[in-house]
Amino acid sequence: MFRAFPVRYIKHTRTLATHAAPTSTRSGNSVTRHNWKKDEIQQIYDTPLLDLVFRAASVHRQHHDPTKIQLCTLMNIKTGGCSEDCSYCSQSSRYATPTKASRLVDIEPVLEAARKAKENGSTRFCMGAAWRDLAGRKRGFERILEMVREVRGMGMEVCTTLGMLSPEQARQLKEAGLTAYNHNLDTSREFYPQVITTRSYDDRLETISAVRDAGISVCSGGILGLGESDSDRVGLIYEVANMPEHPESFPVNALVPIPGTPLEGNDPVSVHILIRTIATARVAMPATIIRLAAGRNTLDETDQAMCFMAGANAVFTGEQMLTTPCSPWDEDKAMMGRWGLDGMRSFEQVGVAKKEAARLEQAEIRQTTKSANLIEPAL
Ligand code: SF4
User: Disulfide bond: present as a keyword of the record (predicted)?
Assistant: First the structure.
């Protein structure tokens, strides 16, 4: 089934990989731009909320099937003990939180979790490890590459979040079959130093470039409720919407304050801000999948439906997020049924399908070259 991608995707991917990024492309009546000014995005963000939702819903319908929601399941494959100081995170070793550090899990429990996720309708499986980067983790990285190969072999989209990546590590992950890599910008460039000090905004952008250059789909979004202002939420969207390619996925998290972290006392973000941010991101990045991530379980069903109307079209579902609660599959399926929503198939998003087609083509070229080299000495 993995070889069934239409040839036109492969050709298009080659074009994308070799030309300079356009400042805009047209699809239907809506234009995809990469040259946004911050005040243009601010203007969209400041639109009266129901008008903004209506506009976002119209853009959404030009680029996506509005009845489809991508179901993803997340697994923490290495918990806690992280050297970074992200002030929202229970996995940082700098804070006294309820999260206990553990070693990288074995392959089999991961495959079991992925099988269960697939049986329950999830088409993307994401694995997260609490690390700054992969330096000095050669054997762990090899195990993760094997996890990627195996989960991809089940026909699922596979995503990892492993901290900072080098171009070579990104290349190896792509070759193993990685569909997407998550590396959030979290917030605006201006507010970022108040949230994290152990790695810079530019470090994050560098990892995102390495991922994109390796042909892996980028998943990069933010967290609301960190204490940021409206202009910081606009600043985050401005950063991702002006990337040479929009991230294929933009996760929107609502902070779940964790006891022991510096942000434990933060007020919850209002649903109006959540919806406004989703809708603005939808208008600025029409083809991106917008992912309702941490904190979704605190929203009631009507609020979630409003997020879907505003352009969100993916959720994490299953037993657990990395360290916070998740809505279970049966509840999500029942909710989706009530609102006329259905799960997305694997590789339904065109941008993600193109990148996978390019990977398969490369794998075939490598295989043909290897076979030719084997035959040659016998001639
Ligand atoms: S968010 Fe990631 S990098 Fe930051 S402390 Fe938590 S696990 Fe470490």
Answer: no
Could you tell me if the CB of 262 is within 6 A of ligand 1? Answer: no
Residue 219: active-site member: yes
Q: What residues contact 55, with CB distance under 8 A and at least 6 apart?
A: 44, 47, 279, 283
Examine residue 372 and state whether it is found in any structural domain, yes or no. no
Cβ-count burial 132-147 (b if 16+ within 10 Å, e if not): ebbeebeebbebbbeb
Given 72, 159, 307, 326, which residue is catalytic?
159
Looking at the structure of the chain, the number of domains it has is: 1
pTM of the entire predicted model? 0.89
Q: Does residue 31 fall inside a structural domain?
A: no
- What range does the domain containing 139 cover? 46-364
Q: Is 86 a catalytic residue?
A: yes
- Residue 2 within a domain: no
Q: Is 130 in the pocket of ligand 1 (CB under 6 A)?
A: yes
Nearest residue (CA) to ligand 1, atom 5: 92
Whether residue 129 has its Cβ less than 6 Å from ligand 1: no
Tell me the CATH number at 343. Answer: 3.20.20.70
Residue 130 alpha carbon, nearest atom of ligand 1:
7
Q: Is 307 a catalytic residue?
A: no
Residues 6 or more apart whose CB falls under 8 angstroms from that of 275 comprise 49, 53, 303, 306, 307, 310
The per-residue pLDDT string of the chain (379 residues; one tens digit each, 9 = 90 and over) reads 333 343 333 333 333 333 344 466 655 556 789 999 999 999 999 999 999 999 999 999 999 999 999 999 999 999 999 999 999 999 999 999 989 899 999 999 999 999 999 999 999 999 999 999 898 899 999 999 999 999 999 999 999 999 999 999 999 999 999 999 999 999 999 999 999 999 999 999 999 999 999 999 999 999 999 999 999 999 999 999 999 999 999 999 999 999 999 999 999 999 999 999 999 999 999 999 999 998 888 899 999 999 999 999 999 988 766 666 667 888 899 999 999 999 999 999 888 999 989 899 888 888 888 777 766 665 5
> Is residue 30 situated within a structural domain?
no
Among residues 55, 72, 82, 326, the one annotated as catalytic is 82
Q: How many CB atoms lie within 10 A of CB 188?
A: 21
Q: How far is the centre of ligand 1, averaged over its atoms, from the C-alpha of 40 (Å)?
A: 32
